[in-house]
UniProtKB/TrEMBL annotation:
Any one GO MF annotation of this record: tRNA binding
Keyword field: Aminoacyl-tRNA synthetase, ATP-binding, Cytoplasm, Ligase, Nucleotide-binding, Protein biosynthesis
Keyword Glycosyltransferase listed: no
Domain Aminoacyl-tRNA synthetase class I anticodon-binding: 374-445
Protein name: Glutamate--tRNA ligase
GO cellular component terms, semicolon-separated: cytoplasm
Subcellular location field: Cytoplasm
Stated role: Catalyzes the attachment of glutamate to tRNA(Glu) in a two-step reaction: glutamate is first activated by ATP to form Glu-AMP and then transferred to the acceptor end of tRNA(Glu).
Source organism of the structure: Methylocystis hirsuta
Length: 450
């Protein structure tokens, strides 16, 4: 395979949700696995709804997931290319003006359905004479422009669905230009794919029908250019089976970030859900790319349950080495000689990354110890060995306490944990005790200020 060039082309009309991120991840991982290039292309020709604020928000969301594009394009800056393509299609007779209102089209479709006919545009506009068109425009009507599809079957080998085909005679000629002269999605997308030499178009299965139109457009605009290879993957749905939407903000990347989930956990779940691969934690997108394979993607809808992110975030944090999180720890002012051993000790006990602050306070600040059995704790304090301490100190100390008091099991360990950490459970005390140190441990056992 030659190095692929792929693109993620969101409309900046809102913040992206997990379903949009899945498309971006599929493209990014495919490019990474095959030493290709990933372009971010903002489909922002809907000038009324698109905004720079949303575009910037999408870039922030992608960067949080670890997706950094090689190139960024804005369709709003490339309108001249689309106008030139439209002119060429008009001259060849493939793009023709239509004057029906939406109400007239709706009425016509209902009549066709009542007669048992498919609700396909009947090309009535092609039968208009020049004088007919002039009369309609004199009434104030402005045309929208449709692309005339050729008869036949569009065929392609889909990297997810296998051999695929669409009978173009079952499709309406698509509208490419609105009455106000603005472009719909289809024409700019094809023009850009040709100009950017996109080799693979990886997107949701809701675009399958569009493929037939786009193949014909490529043939009309660049008959000698190779068509991209298509891959249409299954769609993510919510835990209750609901469709995802930017407009409702359902499962937005911004909300998942605010909830404290790990970006790699979000990426792994969004990518592996709905495939034959087991969902598992990863340390990097590079690791995820190594096992990514479009042929493993299921044909059935993929249910995304945020509850699964709880477990996956915990497992992801447990995988990180200190170097993976050093900068994030420094941002929380977790620095110094205790930072690395604390991370190693606590990483398997974190539900969210910021939970590390709880254990940093345990080893480097004051806490409110829970002193349930003061007499026992006084005895334990008397047996507390002098420093230096290491990870063998806990076992040696508790062995001495067991011998002296006869306690064992929970009766021995639980009061010590409550006093030393102020918590019912947590990292192994063999690792925490040397970080707490003699002075803090003694103060918590005997109940004095540290």
């Amino acid at each position: 395979m030659t190095s692929p060039i792929v693109r993620f082309a969101p409309s900046p009309t809102g913040r992206i949700h997990i379903g949009n991120a899945r498309v971006a991840l599929f493209n990014f991982l495919f490019a990474a696995a095959n030493l290709g290039r990933f372009a971010l292309r903002f489909d922002d020709t809907d000038f009324a709804r698109s905004s720079e604020e949303f575009a910037r928000g999408i870039e922030i969301d992608l960067a949080w997931l670890g997706i950094v594009p090689h190139e960024v394009f804005r369709q709003s800056e490339r309108v001249a290319l689309y106008a030139d393509a439209a002119n060429r299609l008009q001259r060849s007779g493939r793009l023709y003006p239509c004057y029906e209102t939406q109400e007239e089209l709706d009425k016509r479709r209902k009549m066709q359905q009542a007669r048992g006919l498919p609700p396909v545009y009947d090309r009535a506009a092609l039968r208009l004479s020049a004088s007919d068109r002039a009369a309609l425009e004199a009434e104030g009507r402005q045309p929208h422009w449709r692309f005339r599809l050729e008869p036949g079957v569009a065929e392609w080998n889909d990297l997810v669905r296998g051999p695929a085909h669409i009978d173009c005679s079952a499709l309406s000629d698509p509208v490419l230009i609105r009455e106000d002269g603005s472009f719909l999605y289809t024409l700019p997308s094809v023009v850009d794919d040709i100009d950017m030499r996109i080799t693979h178009v990886i997107r949701g299965e809701d675009h399958v029908t569009n493929t037939a139109v786009q193949l014909q457009l490529i043939g009309a605009l660049a008959p000698h250019a190779p068509a991209p290879i298509f891959a249409h993957h299954n769609l993510l749905i919510g835990a209750g089976g609901e469709a995802l939407s930017k407009r409702t903000g359902s499962l937005s990347i911004a909300s998942l970030r605010e909830d404290g989930y790990e970006p790699l956990a979000v990426a792994a779940l969004a990518t592996l859900t709905g495939s034959s691969d087991n969902v598992h934690a990863v340390r990097s997108l590079g690791e995820l790319a190594q096992s990514f394979n479009l042929s493993h993607v299921s044909r059935n809808p993929a249910r995304f349950d945020p509850a699964d992110l709880e477990t996956l975030t915990h497992r992801t944090l447990a995988l990180y080495d200190y170097d993976d999180v050093r900068e994030r720890l420094e941002a929380l002012t977790i620095v110094g000689r205790k930072a690395e051993p604390l991370w190693r000790a606590a990483r398997g006990n974190l539900a969210r990354f910021d939970d590390i602050l709880t254990w940093w306070r345990v080893v480097d600040a004051e806490i409110e110890p829970i002193r349930e059995d003061e007499s026992f704790l006084q005895d334990a304090a008397q047996l507390l060995p002098s420093e230096p301490w290491d990870e063998t100190t806990w076992a040696a100390w508790t062995s001495d306490i067991k011998t002296a008091t006869g306690r064992k099991g929970k009766a021995l360990f639980h009061p010590l944990r409550l006093a030393l950490t102020g918590a019912e459970s947590g990292p192994e005390l063999a690792s925490l005790l040397p970080l707490i140190g003699h002075a803090k441990a003694l103060a918590r056992l005997v109940g004095v200020r540290e």
